[in-house]
Write a structure and sequence with these properties.
The chain is mainly α and 122 residues long. The protein has one domain. Helix content is 84%, strand content 0%. The protein is built from 4 helices and no strands. The longest helix has 43 residues. The two termini are 29 Å apart.
Length: 122
C-alpha cells in the first residue's frame, strides 16, 4: 500500500512539476463542474430517505385528517423513525454502489483529479 502512495505522488509530480503554473480559467470551470457533480451525488444518496419521510408525512397527514382523535406527536415520530431506519437499511447497497463509482480508479473523483493535474502540466 505505501508503495502505491509513493508512486501516486511521483506521478503527480510528473504531471504537475514543482513550482509550475496552473491555468486559472480551466481550473475554475473544472472545480465548478466538480461542485455540481458532488451536489448530484449528494442528492442521489439522500433522496430515497427524504422522499420516504415526505411520503410518510403525507400519509400521516391524511390519517390525522380522517381520525382527529389520534395524537400526531405520539404516533408520528416513532413511525417516521422506524420508516426512516428501514429505508436506510435498504438503501445501503445503493449508497455503497455510488461510493464505489466515486472512488474507483476510473471513478468520477479520480477523473477530475487527473484533469486538474493535467491543467498544471506543461
Amino acid at each position: 500500500m505505501p508503495i502505491r502512495l509513493i508512486q501516486a505522488v511521483q506521478h503527480s509530480f510528473l504531471l504537475l512539476p514543482f513550482g509550475g503554473a496552473i491555468r486559472l480559467e480551466p481550473t475554475f470551470q473544472l472545480l465548478a463542474s466538480l461542485t455540481g457533480q458532488m451536489f448530484v451525488v449528494g442528492l442521489k444518496i439522500a433522496l430515497p430517505v427524504m422522499a420516504t419521510i415526505l411520503l410518510t408525512d403525507i400519509g400521516l397527514g391524511i390519517v390525522i385528517r380522517a381520525v382527529p382523535q389520534i395524537n400526531v406527536f405520539v404516533l408520528g415520530f416513532p413511525i417516521k423513525i422506524m420508516v426512516g431506519m428501514v429505508v436506510v437499511v435498504f438503501a445501503i447497497p445503493a449508497v455503497v454502489h455510488i461510493i464505489t463509482q466515486l472512488f474507483s480508479t476510473d471513478g468520477l473523483l479520480f477523473r477530475y483529479l487527473q484533469e486538474l493535474l493535467s491543467l498544471g502540466g506543461s
